[in-house]
Q: What sequence folds into this?
């Protein structure tokens, strides 16, 4: 490129016409532009080559450092890795032990919860339908007082099945009749009250049973049969609390009978 520039300069010196001088100047300018482009490209290529060389040198240095690392250093790294592994295994064993303990505790808690649930269910069942005679009898009376004759009858019948010879058996039998009387099932009530007269003759509930039999007949308009039971109370149990009610009921029946005769 420099040679071309010298030839161009020499040519300028030999030119005598103005037109040829202008042409030469243009050629020189073009040559200078080409020279600058070539120099710029050369500089960029040199910079890239330097970067490549540096990258290669860095890689070589790294390989050299790795090659110079001693066997002792590798042994230290291996021992450290083994120690870390042993430590991790120990932590895993501790965690597993804790998990086993938690699982065992959870199972024990579940068993305790199941036992508590079963106990509560049993207690609830006993409260709804106890088996001991006192609670059973009292609950039956309570249900009857609450206007639940069917439920009360179920409980009284269960009492009779469990404790047929108990001192409260006559009372329970009487209250079975009362459950039917509360439902206005007069004939069923009469049947149950008659069991008191037949099976528990010495019971204090006999006068009450006689009274309710008479009242059951009276409720059906049968004063003739009702009077038989009212009069029985007035004759055989005149000191009983039921005697007054029997007297009043008997008087009412006789008045009705007299009214019919008129």
A:
């Amino acid at each position: 490129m420099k040679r071309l520039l010298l030839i161009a300069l020499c040519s300028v010196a030999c030119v005598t016409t103005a037109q040829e001088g202008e042409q030469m100047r243009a050629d020189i300018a073009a040559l200078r532009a080409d020279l600058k482009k070539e120099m710029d490209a050369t500089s960029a290529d040199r910079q890239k080559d330097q970067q490549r060389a540096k990258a290669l040198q860095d890689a070589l240095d790294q390989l050299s450092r790795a090659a110079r690392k001693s066997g002792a250093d590798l042994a230290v790294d291996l021992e450290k890795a083994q120690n870390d592994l042993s430590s991790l295994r120990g932590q895993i064993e501790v965690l597993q032990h804790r998990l086993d303990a938690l699982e065992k505790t959870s199972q024990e808690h579940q068993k305790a919860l199941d036992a508590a649930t079963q106990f509560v269910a049993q207690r609830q069942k006993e409260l709804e339908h106890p088996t001991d005679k006192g609670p059973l009898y009292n609950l039956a009376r309570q249900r009857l007082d609450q206007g639940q004759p069917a439920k009360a009858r179920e409980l009284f019948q269960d009492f009779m099945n469990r404790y047929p010879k108990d001192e409260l058996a006559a009372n329970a039998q009487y209250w079975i009749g009362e459950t039917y009387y509360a439902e206005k099932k007069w004939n069923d009530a009469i049947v149950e009250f008659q069991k008191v007269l037949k099976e528990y003759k010495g019971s204090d509930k006999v006068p009450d049973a006689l009274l309710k039999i008479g009242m059951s007949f009276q409720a059906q308009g049968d004063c003739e049969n009702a009077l038989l039971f009212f009069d029985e109370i007035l004759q055989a149990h005149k000191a009983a609390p039921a005697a007054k009610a029997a007297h009043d009921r008997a008087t009412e029946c006789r008045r009705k009978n007299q009214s019919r005769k008129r």
About this structure: The radius of gyration is 61 Å. Residues 160 and 169 are 6 Å apart (CA to CA). Confidence is low (pLDDT under 50) at residues 4-10, 12-16.
